[in-house]
Amino acid sequence: MSTRTDLELIDLVKDYGQSLAVAGINLKIAAGSYCCLLGPSGCGKTSTLRMIAGHEEPTEGQIALGGREITHLSPAARGTAMMFQSYALFPHLTVLENVAFSARMKGVARAEREARAHELLQLVAMDPYAARLPAALSGGQQQRVALARALMMRPKVLLLDEPLSALDPFLRVKMRAELKRWHQSLGMSFVHVTHSQEEAMALADLVVVMNHGRIEQAGSAREVFERPRTEFVARFIGAHNIIDTPAGKVAVRCDRLNLVEPDAGETVVTVAAVEYQGAQVQVHLMAESAADAEDAERWTATLSDASFHAAPMAPGHRVAMRWWAADAHALAA
Ligand SMILES: Nc1ncnc2c1ncn2[C@@H]1O[C@H](COP(=O)(O)OP(=O)(O)OP(=O)(O)O)[C@@H](O)[C@H]1O
After folding, report:
1. Where would I find the ABC transporter domain in this sequence (predicted)?
2. Between the CA of residue 326 and those of 227, 231, 241, 250, 260, what are the distances in Å?
3. Cβ(44) to ligand 1 under 6 A?
4. Which of 31, 57, 226, 267 has its CA 20 to 30 A from that of 260?
5. Burial class (CB in 10 A: 0-12, 13-18, 19+), 245
6. Which CATH number is 7-231 given?
7. Nearest-angstrom CA–CA distance, 198 and 284
8. Whether 99 contacts 152, CB under 8 Å
């Protein structure tokens, strides 16, 4: 049910002239949710985020926050705050001054803005660094300060543009957990742009998969993973096989594909490669009928180590692929 602080995108279009970045999308993000806009480079996710932030004027359509239309309001007047990819901290201001900056611009008295800035720095465990300059902080620390700064004006929605992409893989996983914790403790909506399906799965209540300026599917991580609506979503989310059947294309999860000795009349595939990964084994398969191995259709069966070792397979083995009807999801054309 709609609540007063839902964020709504209505028939939103961004046409830059030479490219139609966002081709008319409709989306409702429930208050307090963690939404990830997910998709490949150029699919329109950053343009969407920038329109929500007020940094880009929509060509058509509307944006509403809490039932109030904000489409043409200035970035500071709409109840959103943006945390940029580069963090964009002012290099000549201390951590405390960076966090207090927007309140200073609004004319909030010094004592009041500094008290709030300290409070936010405590939230992100950066208060001991209040007097430092940004150059004397690590990437992860700068990100925490950028978050505190974005929260200064008490936004209803926090917008995050690829917030983890500048971090090394170890820090990325650590900061991912922090983002989730902050989201839970702040209770506001987060809209987070990413091209990493792993990041979206780990964080989002609502995963929005975009392609060519359109929404291919919006749902919980589990819905999107267990029931991809289109071939694009199944391939982008990964760990799925796309299989042509007489009834049309279906998606079958790699861990739900079973390999058996072929019976007469069954389609036979060939084991192309076997990758041992410890707890599981990836068995890569290709169509036996393929004339050219480069162009062959390929599938993968992810087997537990126990089931693989009970009946080991090697490249060149001929097997049949089977799956339970409930594990095959028809894909929209
Ligand atoms: N200012 C601009 N002027 C013209 N075209 C633009 C502009 N900004 C983006 N585009 C184009 O609009 C399309 C969508 O871009 P957008 O940045 O929204 O995608 P994205 O999904 O965020 O991609 P990335 O992950 O690479 O940032 C692309 O084709 C891009 O080239």
Report:
1. 7-237
2. 11, 18, 15, 11, 18
3. yes
4. 226
5. exposed
6. 3.40.50.300
7. 22
8. yes
Q: Tokens standing for 260?
A: 């058996």
Domain extent listing, the chain:
7-231, 253-330
Question: Same topology for domains 7-231 and 253-330, yes or no?
Answer: no
Ligand 1 centroid from CA 47, angstroms: 6
- Per-residue pLDDT tens digits for 92-105: 999 999 999 989 98
The yes or no reply on domain 253-330 and CATH 2.40.50.100 is: yes
Helix segments in 41-90, DSSP class H: 45-53
Please tell me the distance from the alpha carbon of residue 4 to that of residue 8, in angstroms, as a whole number. Answer: 11
Categorise residue 11: left if φ over 0, alpha if ψ from -120 to 50, beta otherwise: left
**Minimum-distance ligand 1 atom for the alpha carbon of 210:** 21
| β-strand pairing of 157-161 with 258-260 | unpaired
ipTM of the complex: 0.96
Residue 92 confidence (pLDDT): 96
Nearest CA owner, ligand 1 atom 17: 46
